[in-house]
Amino acid sequence: MTDKNIESILIEKRRFAPSAEFTAGARLKPADLEALHAEAAADYEGFWAARAREELSWDKPFTTVLDDSKAPNYAWFTDGELNVSANCLDVHLAERGDKTAIIFEGEEGDRRNLSYRELTSEVSRFANALQAQGAAAGDRIVIYMPMVPEAVIAMQACARIGAIHSVVFGGFSANALRDRIIDAGAKMVITADGGRRGGSVIELKQATDAALAEGCASIEKVIVLKRTGHEINMTAGRDIWWDDAVAEQSDVCEPVALNAEHPLFLLYTSGSTGKPKGIQHSSAGYLLQAKLTSKWVFDLNDSDVFWCTADVGWITGHSYVAYGPLAAGATIVMYEGGPVYPDAGRFWKMCEELGVTVFYTAPTALRALMKFGDEFPNQYDLSKIRLLGTVGEPINPEAWMWYHTVIGKERCPIVDTWWQTETGGIMMTPVPGVTATKPGSCTLALPGIMTDVVDDSGNSVEAADAGGYLVIRKPWPSMLRTIWGDNDRYIETYWEKFRNRFYVAGDSAHRDADGYFWIMGRIDDVVNVSGHRLGTMEVESALVAHQRVVEAAVVSRPHDVKGESIFAYVVFRGDRPTGAEAEALTKELRDWVGEQVGAIAKPDDIRFTDNLPKTRSGKIMRRLLRAIARGEEITQDTSTLENEAILDQLRGLA
Ligand code: PRX
């Protein structure tokens, strides 16, 4: 992508307009959306100030809207004060205190509902418990939990007292957990004995103990929820059961008024290096967009039951489980377990039984479920569903059409939402009652969001279907504020390429003749495995940490369910393993990567080779490796390779 535009590859001509019936009942109608766009175009700051005053309840009103004095470290509503938890819970008590906030279903079928009043009490009790255990505003608290209501309770309790949470996905390994604890300098871990997924128990406490066995000096307390009830170790003086921690606590806890810019949370995500970065989000700006997009994009109203299937370990589970829909006063569904447990009908059975009206999931889940056949969804009554959404990766037209016909019965708009951990909320998406959709396109930016496609010199790419860098021209309230402990990396990663003129998303994209955006993929070394973002460098560092691995190069290749899968080329100490030995070592290395990072990072393919192809300057020829992994023709000049015979090894032919 250095001197020539990326060629666009996907051209999809079908269009699906929302039905007149959907539009008639929608929050945003064409004229509303047009008015919002016009308002943002006429007075950008005024537009956001108006939304912040309408949507949020402030303890101290703001007078400054956007502070760009330290750009590209932008700040919003800087002299205002509020509390995020109060804005998600307390604000609803008068009008909808008895309304169900969370409908929870465990993998074994156990159910539990929490009303807004009950949730507020639980959050308050746990917030008091956190304080009693020594937590205060600004402390970092790591949450390593299964998908149970207590995960949201813990997040909201942190927000209530101003502690900064850092949720670590329960599928990450002890090593990954340890790195994140150390980087954040966390004071506490909140975990559970275990969680259930796919019929087995995830050993969360055991992994926590392993993480804390080395180098986590900042940790003072571990709070442990009893979920599975299986045997675990408790360390005296450090570990306390959740139930004991809350036992004596009052269910009233005054929310602390915090500055708008007070960090609400860190969330670690992969980048182009081996070290995940702690994306830091603010309080007011983040919540504003999480709430607004919940209303604009998911069209949530008081009779909706909203199910976003994402785990709270990812940004989607932050913005569209723990914060946005609660701020909007919606009823949400939380599910602990796997999508094919006990069979591939689980999601659809839950949609029927719980009366889900708005369903939001990842394309990879749809592709996985699609493979089991239509008879699973067809067994259930999905007539209450009125709106569908996807997130995390481009959706292939085949999966889109399946979603549209088999799940949505050709009745429901599909919102394909483009955004990132860094953006905090949805940026580009169809607005369901307004935008005609095209399978595979995230369509257009929301009001107040100025996305563009530019070439290498930073000029807008005007020609239809010509690719370029996806950028965002103006700061937005829910943008990341920095990378925890490494502001230089923040500037370098997101701003330097175009000399701080606009935010560089790291994706390539193109626009079609209607101005619709089509995301083409990442331009950095980030891969998207089952909708989960992973750095190829992270997997490489895990591989080379194995005592017998000398060098490793990791690339991705398309995978029909996961979207992308990981392909690793490995140089071993000693003779290159072949045959049965290579098979055994492949298994060993896969398990090793699982231990180092987490099961999602396990390479699908491992190829042993005597050395890696390098340029004269010693850089690994990744493009060549990618072409080979994908079985594509090699168009690159390979004459500079020291050892041409290596090509056959890389291809797996020798
Ligand atoms: O490449 C884009 C892809 O996922 C990346 C962001 O990953 P993450 O921070 O883990 O957040 C995922 C959930 C918001 C983006 O840079 N991506 C996300 N949504 C879409 C997408 N690609 C295409 N279409 C989408 N709707």
Description of the molecule:
The chain has 654 residues and is α/β, with parallel strands linked by helices. Helix content is 31%, strand content 21%. It has 21 helices and 30 strands. The strands form eight sheets. The chain has an eight-stranded mixed β-sheet, sandwiched between helices. Helix 19 links the parallel strand 29 and strand 30. The relative contact order is 0.11. The structure holds adenosine-5'-monophosphate-propyl ester. The site of adenosine-5'-monophosphate-propyl ester has 21 residues, from helix 12, strand 20, strand 24 and strand 25.
Proportion of residues in helical segments: 25-40%
Work out the radius of gyration.
24 Å
Q: Which residues sit in consecutive blocks of at least 5 with pLDDT less than 50?
A: 1-5
What is the strand tally? 30
Q: For the residues shown, what is the average pLDDT? A: 95
Largest sheet: 8 strands, mixed
Distance between the termini: 32 Å
- Widest beta sheet: strand line-up: 12-11-8-6-7-14-15-23
Helix/strand-derived category reads alpha/beta
Number of helices: 21
The unique ligands bound to this protein are: adenosine-5'-monophosphate-propyl ester
Note the beta-strand portion: 15-25%
* Overall body shape: globular
Ordered list of secondary-structure elements with their pairings:
Layout: H1 20-25, H2 30-42, H3 44-55, E1 66-67, E2 75-76, E3 81-82, H4 84-88, H5 93-96, E4 100-105, E5 111-115, H6 116-132, E6 140-144, H7 149-161, E7 164-167, H8 174-184, E8 188-192, E9 195-197, E10 200-202, H9 204-212, E11 221-225, E12 239-241, H10 242-247, E13 258-259, E14 265-269, E15 277-281, H11 284-298, E16 305-308, H12 315-327, E17 331-335, H13 346-354, E18 358-361, H14 363-370, H15 375-378, E19 387-391, H16 397-407, E20 414-417, E21 451-454, E22 467-472, E23 482-483, H17 487-494, E24 503-511, E25 517-522, E26 526-529, E27 532-535, H18 536-544, E28 549-559, E29 563-572, H19 579-596, E30 605-608, H20 622-629, H21 646-650
Parallel strand pairs: 4-17, 6-7, 6-8, 7-14, 8-11, 11-12, 16-17, 16-18, 18-19, 19-20, 29-30
Antiparallel strand pairs: 1-2, 3-13, 4-5, 9-10, 14-15, 15-23, 21-22, 22-24, 24-25, 26-27, 28-29
Helix pairs in contact: 2-3, 6-7, 8-9, 11-12, 14-16
